Structures are given as C-alpha cells and as structure tokens.
Amino acid sequence: MDKRLVLITGHYGSGKTEFAVNYAIECSKDHHNVRLADLDIVNPYFRSREREDLLKSFGIRLVGNVNVNVSIELPALPPEIRGAIEDSQSKSVIDVGGDPIGARVLARYSEDIKKQDYDMFLVVNANRPETQNKDAVIKYIKEIEFASKLKITGLVNNTHLLKSTSKEDVYRGHRLVEEVSIETHLPIKYDAAIKKIAEEINSENSDIKVFPITLYMREEWMS
What we know:
This protein has helices spanning 16-27, 52-57, 80-86, 100-107, 110-114, 134-148, 167-184, 195-204, and strands spanning 5-10, 34-39, 60-63, 91-96, 118-124, 154-157, 188-194, 210-213. The chain is of the alpha/beta class and 223 residues long.
C-alpha cells in the first residue's frame, strides 16, 4: 500500500504530470480528502494546475501557485504546500519538477517530509533518450536524491509514445525498470499505459497489472 504522502518525479517527457493527475483521481475513489500539490516550476507546458476544474469535479483540492515565475530559480511558494505535506488527515500527491533544479524546490521541505510517512516515485519512459537504459535511470535517481535530499522509494514504468503507444513499449519499459529494481532494490510500484493498451494487457497477462491512464493533460488535437 502506498504511503499517505506521495511525491512523483520523472524526466521531461516521462508523463510524470499525467500520471500524477490520474493517480490523484484514482486516490479520490478511496479518500475523501485528496490534495494534489503542483511543485513543477520547470515544465512550462503541462502543469497539473491547468486542470483545476477537472480536479475539483473529483473532489480533489489543487495546491499550487498559479503566478509562479519560472524565470526565478527558487520562487516563493504558497504556505498550503506545507499543509499538504503535514496534514495527516489528507492523502497528498505532490507533482515535483522533473530535473535536479525542480528537485531543489522539494529540498526546501525535505526535513518536514522526512517526518512523514512518504513515498517518492520515479516515473520512467524508456522511449526518452535520457532514460533508455539501466545506468542512465540509476544516474538520474542519484541526481534527484542528491538535489531533493530525499530518497526514491519506488519505480513507475510509463513507457509511451502518447496515443501511438504499443504493448511492446509497455513490456520493454517493464523490462528496463526490472533491471533497475534488481540493482537498486527499489520496488516497481506501477506499470502505466493509456487506457486502451492497459485494458489489452490486463486482459491477456496476469504477470503485469497495468494502471490505466487518461490523457487529461493533452488536448484532443494533440498527437
């Protein structure tokens, strides 16, 4: 079972924010008080705070600063972030910037987070050049841990090509995170894929249970 506080990070293009939004929505089925905190100040394109109305429809409270200036390396952040971290009555999901600069923002709260029962998941897309092999993923884990002053506790395989994702993409990504898991002893927490592919794999394969993703963060016209 995942911890009360879940931090989600991953390289640009990993689908980190898409997973974070889908994960928070899934959590809302079992928890009455779910918060999604947007700490991604690095990626200017796909931000969870752009889907505030959608999240509200699921009863999810979005925490984040809509006026964050991405040109400022470590901007001011709202006090509600600390509340999401410390409130023992809430299920809190934090969408973290997917590079060492973004992780440095999280480091501000590292001592508070260490006092909590927390998980930090690394989302991996094996189709991205920065995370295509075991050594690259492990190097990335170390960089994020050093910058955030926190530990990755689990891996998420989200190997995709957006709407062109195939079952083989998911299986290849699973093999990669298996290699990383064996060397680092980090568990594979989720394999994720767009809903159509997830349903296909789940109907024919009992070894991998795939978490279905809806592309909330992409407009219909996007590939």
